[in-house]
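Hey,
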Amino acid sequence: MIRDVILHVNGEQPLLADLFEAPSPGDVGLRCTNLRQMNGKRPVFVDDISSIFFFPYLHLRFVEIPPGAMSGADGSLAVTTDDEGERPRRSRAHAASEPKPEPEPEVEADLEIDEDFLRRIREV
């Protein structure tokens, strides 16, 4: 069970749901249960939030699976990007088992003011 997945429905507010399995490329829709609004309340179009719901992918913009939502799943499958968004890296759970890279030595900045430079600025 994948808990607290956020479904972004076309033209609607996002909904929270629990998925039975991770979406796969061959699926035509998303099967879920425990459907609720972001504040935890029952949506007006739902009679019982514990029912099983099927959303065709045609009506979903995207599915957001937060980190740690996959209980009992292999965390090494998650791929994220670094701060610049340039290259993928493994999730934090898997990264803890990898050796940490050596920190780069800090380059000491030349903070000494050049007197000749200051003299030329004053002349201008």
